[in-house]
Amino acid sequence: MSQIYPSVSPAGSFSYRPDIDGLRGIAVSAVILFHANITGFRGGFVGVDIFFVISGFLITAISLREWETGRFSVGKFFEKRARRIMPALLLVILACVPFALTIPNPLQSRQFFESVLYVLSFSSNFHFWGQTGYFETSAELKPLLHTWSLAVEEQYYVLFPFMFLALVRSRKAAALLILATGSVVSLALAQTLIQSGHKPAAFFLLPARIWELVAGVFCALAYRGGVNARVPGKASDLLAGAGLILVLVSFPVFNGKTATPGAHALIPVTGAALIFLFSRSGGIVYRVLSCKPLVFLGLISFSAYLWHQPIFAFARLYAGVPLSVWTMAALCLLIIPLAYASWRFVEVPFRNRESVSLALSCRAAFAAVAVLVVVSTIGIRTYGLIHYRFPENVASIYETVLRSIDNDFEDAMHDKGNCVFWSLDTDVETEDRFASCVDRYGPATVVIGDSHGMNIYNVLAKTEAFDFLLGLATHGHQAHKAHTKNWYHRHVLPFVERHKQDIDKIVYHQTASTFWNREIDPSTEAGSDALNGSDVEKVAEFMADLSAYTKTVWLGPYPDFGHDPVKAVFDLPSRKMAQSAKEQLVLLDQAALESAQGRNFIYAKFADLYPMPDSSFFDRCVLFRDSDHLTSCGEKIVAEWIAANETLNALSVKKADAPKGLEAGS
């Protein structure tokens, strides 16, 4: 039988394949250059897909050899995986702690320590999947983001030994059928998630990734079956060459819009598989991949992968501005000596039981984990030791800001279980609740729009002036955009038509910035040429459609804050509303009022409901959670002012403005 690949132990009898280390070197280089934003590596993220295939191949090959020699055990399998991953991982996290405690932004410091706890529990892929929402910081600024792939592998390792035992104890045909079925289901799941708009779930979670790992399992089984030996030398070289081309072409051709790990990922995965199966000693591909620089990068690839994201992220966090290509290139070079040192002095010793005993490994791991858990818990509760890092007056302002913005946007949607509630859909549950509330209170006020519409729903709910208020506003749904047409025309309009006798009024609200030409910087150019008048008209047309069924109010946008409230703690001028936002709003209000003339709906300026103050900073709250969305406590401040000053009449529709066939108040 062919020998596959060396075990970590020096006593292992597998022949060494330097070409696989070379492929590792290419994969890790692609990932690093992708995260460094180097031109030509837009698709470098598929290096992770290749890692998964390599992992599936090697783990299966090693386990098969151990099974044949009677040395395989579940306990030893888990020990080897822990020795392979944990020492270097814990070292990198510990090295990050001092930098995390000195990040200029305490919120990002806290987010780092939150991610540490998820990394230690092998669930960081779930954590970062949950952070792909609307208001999360850039992925480039998350030092431990890359550990999601380790979490996927660790979750796979928990399943693998039991899957392996079932595989080797089953009939070959049955085992292959189960593996093939599982792969097809996994790939189909990945593609389905991507096509249904759930690409983050496909990207981060094991069920949609397992087909890539199982592809490596199939390669190991095929290699053990001698498929390589049955293919002539020239054909083998051609197949291996085709595999290398498929891998390399993925890096410049793929980009962030490529649907991976769906069908597109078959390209690099197939390429890696062809290399495993048909690269042989003496062949061109074997010689290319076995060159010393690539093999060296392959040997230190795990440490290089661990170090690269923290180095890039902390550099960006400290700089506060995009880094130049030359700076990123210098950081890439810095990764190499760090990776070599941790490979040579941490990975290699800990992977050898003769160098570091199991007892010593366990004690070191428990000590490191205990320190990280304690430090992370403190870091989360204190926003990275905020009171030790800043003067008390600054720390208190920071705490006010961080406390104000520290909640999930959707979780903060107002719903006390009564007839003031928000829904993501007009489903059966919403219909039933709506009908029940109609019986209790009569016609409803319905709020629709985008994420700012969600803010307005919360504001109106917190005025406590409504017995029956339904929020159907949701992220990104602006009436003028083609991709949201289905939401309004397939869901909102039919809902309004069905319930026109049960709706007293519709309030529509949309973000101001969505009306401005993205090619013109509205922060410096507030001229009318920057305003997309056609988009204003499209929204007005939709308002007219709604007004055919019930009273309709287009509540104009509020001015964007225009600044990051956390950064504004130190930057005093930026605590005030951006002047350009106010100027833009005057032009937008004027255009919207002109579009409303002669139509059966009203346009209400937001200033008539609530005059936004110059500064968003209050003693116990900051109005904005980011540059333009209200905080939960900010919504309450606005709501209380509206209630105290009785300005809800700005949303009133006079009897003469009511739609034909409907009486005012119906």
Describe it:
This protein has 25 helices and six strands. α20 (451-462) links the parallel β2 and β3 (469-471). It has 666 residues and is mainly alpha-helical. α2 (46-68) crosses α9, α10 (233-253) runs antiparallel to α11 and α14 (301-319) packs across α15. The protein has a six-stranded parallel sheet. Helix content is 58%, strand content 4%.
Short description:
Helix content is 58%, strand content 4%. The protein is built from 25 helices and 6 strands.
SSE inventory with pairings:
Elements: H1 18-35, H2 46-68, H3 74-100, H4 106-120, H5 124-130, H6 147-169, H7 172-195, H8 199-204, H9 210-224, H10 233-253, H11 266-278, H12 284-289, H13 292-299, H14 301-319, H15 325-351, H16 358-381, H17 386-389, H18 392-405, E1 420-422, H19 428-441, E2 444-449, H20 451-462, E3 469-471, H21 485-498, E4 503-509, H22 533-547, E5 551-555, H23 579-596, E6 602-604, H24 606-609, H25 632-645
Parallel strand pairs: 1-3, 2-3, 2-4, 4-5, 5-6
Helix pairs in contact: 1-2, 1-13, 1-14, 2-6, 2-9, 2-11, 3-6, 3-14, 3-15, 3-16, 4-5, 4-16, 5-6, 7-9, 9-11, 10-11, 14-15, 20-25, 22-23
The proportion of residues in beta strands is under 5%
Shape annotation: elongated
Strand order of the largest sheet: 1-3-2-4-5-6
> How much is the average pLDDT?
88
Rg from C-alpha positions? Answer: 29 Å
Characteristics:
6 strands; 25 helices; mainly alpha; single chain; disordered N terminus; elongated
